[in-house]
C-alpha cells in the first residue's frame, strides 16, 4: 500500500473498508447492543472480538438483530492527537510493514 493509500485510510477510515475491518453489531433482547469484530458464527452463537477483553460468545436465542455496520473499527481523527513528528514516525513505521 502506498503512502497516499495509508494516509487516506487513516484520515477517513469509513470511506473504504475491507469486510474484516467493519464493525459487527448485535442487538440483544434485553436491550443491550454489542459491537466488535465477528470472529465466527454458527447455528447456535456468534463469537465477537472486542478490545482489551477475551472473545465473547453470544447465543443466537438472545439476539434480536445482527449486522455489519458501515463503520470501520478504526476511529476517525486518529492523527489529531499526535504531534507532526509522531505522524511522520507512524507513517515511516507503517511503510515497513508488509
What is the top-level CATH class?
Mainly Beta
What is the correct CATH architecture? Roll
Helix proportion range? 10-25%
- Average pLDDT confidence is 86
Number of structurally distinct domains: 1
Query: Which strand order does the major sheet show?
Result: 4-3-2-1-5
- Catalogue the unreliable spans: none
N-to-C CA distance? 9 Å
Q: Which class best fits the helix and strand makeup?
A: alpha+beta
Q: Could you state the order of secondary-structure elements as H and E? A: HEEEEEH
Question: Major sheet: size, sense and barrel closure?
Answer: 5 strands, antiparallel
Helices, by number, come to: 2
Structure at a glance:
It contains two helices and five strands.
Amino acid at each position: 500500500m502506498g503512502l497516499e493509500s495509508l494516509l487516506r485510510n487513516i484520515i477517513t477510515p469509513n470511506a473504504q473498508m475491507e469486510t474484516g475491518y467493519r464493525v459487527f453489531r448485535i442487538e440483544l433482547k434485553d436491550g443491550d447492543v454489542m459491537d466488535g469484530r465477528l470472529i465466527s458464527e454458527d447455528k447456535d452463537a456468534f463469537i465477537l472480538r472486542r478490545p482489551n477483553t477475551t472473545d465473547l460468545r453470544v447465543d443466537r436465542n438472545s439476539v434480536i438483530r445482527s449486522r455489519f455496520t458501515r463503520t470501520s473499527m478504526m476511529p476517525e481523527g486518529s492523527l489529531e492527537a499526535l504531534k507532526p513528528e509522531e505522524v511522520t514516525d507512524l507513517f515511516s513505521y507503517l511503510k515497513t510493514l508488509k
